[in-house]
Design goal:
heterodimer, A: 314 residues, alpha/beta, 2-enoyl-CoA Hydratase, Chain A, domain 1, seven-stranded mixed sheet, 40% helix, globular, B: 103 residues, alpha+beta, five-stranded mixed sheet
Chain lengths: 314, 103
């Protein structure tokens, strides 16, 4: 029943569980889990609603090696309660970020100054209400504090639940975002927009529309994600290593001002577009119509050459 | 939440040295099973938390069948159930023993 490493590395990120992602993504046998399932650090709230708990509260945290480089990592299980942030799952991620913040550096055996967040989440766990909302804002604060202390925090988005609501906010707080075609990010998900603004604004049952707007290809092209990964363990490994090779933008006032400037310019340029293809045409992509069905390697070549997709404002 | 605690005696101890392992996800129609090699002798402790009420007899039947087939002596098995069907439960339990006995 054991898969060999080559097969595991080629398997789908989208379809994997959080634990399968950790195992397929990191160097074999290097992962050490903190607060593993046998410690039973579970949600204190779900039993009140007669809902089942998970031994790890839906997030796996620990340290390991990525191509020999030490990293801290948190992986959300998108299939457990939509990968939501609760009091316990949030605290596990906050603890990881604070450990990185307080570390003196990447020396042998020390706490790594790199944190990878394998997001797969619809946002706050509504059953935990304020505790869930607080968890999201505390994670964002912890990311800012960690980045100010020289930590690189990456968001990896490619799971079934995408990164919406609080997870969308958290991804936007990171140093860089890596996304796959099936990964989607945003703050308000498609159903939320449709409920509030009507079906004319955004038809959430139109999957091709949802994917073209919220999906990884569009996010990459309009500068909402910094790297595109094919939907495999290897795809995310390669893309993450390439991002880690570049210097991450510092978390400074100048970076924030640059980001505001970039977003205003993007609004001016693309604000009148009614769909994703017209945005891609406006960005000057000759093969705009073909983007959706394009092979990953061809798509990555186009995205890497596009000015709007590549910036240091974050 | 329905809590079920079952003590069984298996034919033999599960082979291997792996101390613990986890399988599955708490999602609709699925379950999460934690295996820990902490029980002395050939006893096997199984603890289940399930939101589905009134299926004790089905759980008992599935667990007895599992004990007869796999002989998971020495294991404590803890289940967080998301409303899995009996065939899914049986499959996960057998997968888990195979995982604990591998290498």
């Amino acid at each position: 029943m054991m898969q060999d490493i080559a097969t595991e590395r080629k398997s789908s990120w989208l379809q994997a569980t959080a634990r399968q992602r950790v195992s397929g993504f990191l160097d074999k046998g290097t992962f050490v889990e903190f607060l593993g399932p046998s410690e039973r650090v579970q949600s204190p709230h779900l039993s009140l609603f007669d809902l089942p708990r998970a031994f790890d509260d839906g997030v796996v945290v620990g340290r390991g090696k990525l191509d020999g480089k030490d990293v801290l990592l948190a992986a959300q299980e998108g299939k457990f309660m939509g990968g939501t942030f609760g009091e316990v799952s949030g605290a596990k991620i906050i603890g990881l970020l604070r450990a990185a913040r307080d570390s003196d550096g990447d020396k042998e055996g020390g706490v790594p100054k790199t944190v990878l967040l394998l997001l797969d989440s619809g946002g706050v766990r509504l059953q935990e209400a304020n505790a869930g909302e607080l968890a999201v804002s505390e994670i964002m604060r912890a990311i800012v504090e960690a980045r100010r202390a020289g930590v690189t925090v990456l968001a990896l988005v490619g799971g079934t639940s995408g990164a919406f609501g609080g997870a969308g906010l958290i991804s936007a707080t990171c140093s860089r975002i890596v996304i796959s075609e099936a990964g989607r990010t945003g703050v308000s998900g498609p159903e939320v927009i449709e409920t509030n603004k009507g079906v004319e604004e955004f038809d959430s049952s139109n999957k091709s529309l949802v994917w073209s707007v919220d999906g990884g290809k569009n996010r990459r092209l309009i500068g909402g994600a910094d790297a595109f990964a094919p939907d495999t363990m290897d795809g995310f490994r390669t893309a993450t290593l390439a991002v880690l090779d570049r210097v991450a933008p510092p978390c400074t006032l100048e970076t924030l001002q640059a980001e505001h400037g970039r977003l205003a310019a993007r609004q001016d340029k693309l604000g009148a577009c009614s769909d994703a293809v017209s945005m891609w045409k406006t960005l000057g992509i000759a093969e705009a119509e073909a983007i959706r069905d394009m092979e990953d390697s061809d798509f990555m070549r186009i995205a890497d050459q596009l000015k709007e997709a590549n910036h240091d404002a974050r | 939440m329905e809590m079920l605690k079952v003590q069984k005696v298996a034919k033999r101890r599960a082979v291997g040295v792996r101390e613990q392992g986890i399988l599955g996800v708490v999602a609709s129609g699925n379950l999460e099973v934690l295996f820990e090699r902490v029980v002395p002798g050939t006893a096997c402790e199984i603890e289940i938390a399930t939101p589905m009420k009134g299926y004790d007899h089905i759980w008992q039947a599935v667990l007895q069948d599992f004990i007869d087939r796999c002989s998971p002596g020495g294991l404590r098995i803890t289940i967080n159930d998301g409303g899995a069907r009996p065939d899914t439960v049986a499959l996960r339990l057998m997968q888990g023993v195979a995982m604990m006995e591998a290498e």
